[in-house]
Amino acid sequence: MAVLQINGSSIDVNDEGYMTNHAQWNPDVAAELAKGLGVTLTPAHWRVLNFIDKDFGEKGVVPGIRRMNKVGGIPTKELYDLFPEGPIKKAAKISGYPKPASCV
What we know:
By secondary structure, the chain is mainly α. 47% of the residues lie in helices and 10% in strands. The chain has a two-stranded antiparallel sheet.
């Protein structure tokens, strides 16, 4: 397990950079993780991140694109615009959740 230093805090991550302890997550951590992925967080990004957080709390898994569309009301095109080249993987990583099982 690796450790990232973000704003003076130690963040545990796995070999792929996904957080392994969500209790260490906060909006500042999200902003730094996003910056590392080339994403600057906007209110539209936070809408996605907040949906993932809520849905993970209910289902125990990171929602896939279909669930983001149908339940979250977030169109696929918007997801790709906000998180280019792998929206669910990037959004899950920034949200502090594990890599979705459906992503390779």
